[in-house]
Amino acid sequence: MMAKVREMVEERDxxxxxxxxxxxxxxxxxxxxxxxxxxxxxxxxxxxxxxELADVLTYCYLLADKIGVDAEGxxxxxxxxxxxxx
Length: 86
Known about the structure:
mainly alpha
């Protein structure tokens, strides 16, 4: 999946803007758009919800990639550590 994300970034020449700081800001901005789906009702439009969640995940993966971290490995390690504490 990361290869497709990198391809999308390259095709659009977005890499010039993808500093760790900008990517972190983008995660928060997209997360607020995800939260906005529930602003006035707990019944969010499923298509919009999926779209906004995909945007959040995309920026999370981009940030992990930018700082040289395997996002899947990071998540796996975090979940494993939390399960071990249970």
